[in-house]
Amino acid sequence: MKRVGSFEAKTYLSRLLREVESGETVEILRNGHAIARIVPVGVEAKSPREAMQRLLTSRATLGELSVQQLRDEGRR
């Protein structure tokens, strides 16, 4: 997930929207604190706990991949 300050988000909104369109999630910060998140349309907002539970449940069918490898693959 990409993190940018609110000033940068305002300045480069078009670029950030292109990144979101290609699947990237962008978190917007103000004074170092997250205040908003821009996600691609169709991406369901899930809690990190729920996402991890789904990952661990499906791990048996994923072979020998580690959680870190799966996470990194999802960022591509």
What's a concise summary of this model?
This protein is α+β, with helices and mostly antiparallel strands and 76 residues long. It folds into two domains: 43 residues, YefM-like domain (YefM-like fold, 3-Layer(aba) Sandwich); 31 residues, no CATH class.
CATH class of the largest domain reads Alpha Beta
Stretches where pLDDT is under 50 for at least 5 consecutive residues are none
Number of strands: 3
Number of individual domains:
2
Mean pLDDT reading: 82
Order of helices and strands: EHHEEHH
CATH homologous superfamily caption of the largest domain: YefM-like domain
Global structural class: alpha+beta
- Helix amount: 40-55%
Largest β-sheet summary: 3 strands, mixed
CATH topological fold name of the largest domain: YefM-like fold
In what order do the strands lie side by side in the largest sheet? 1-2-3
Nearest-angstrom radius of gyration? Answer: 15 Å
Q: DSSP strand (E) fraction?
A: 15-25%
- N-to-C span: 11 Å
CATH architecture grouping of the largest domain: 3-Layer(aba) Sandwich
Tally of helical segments: 4
Shape: elongated
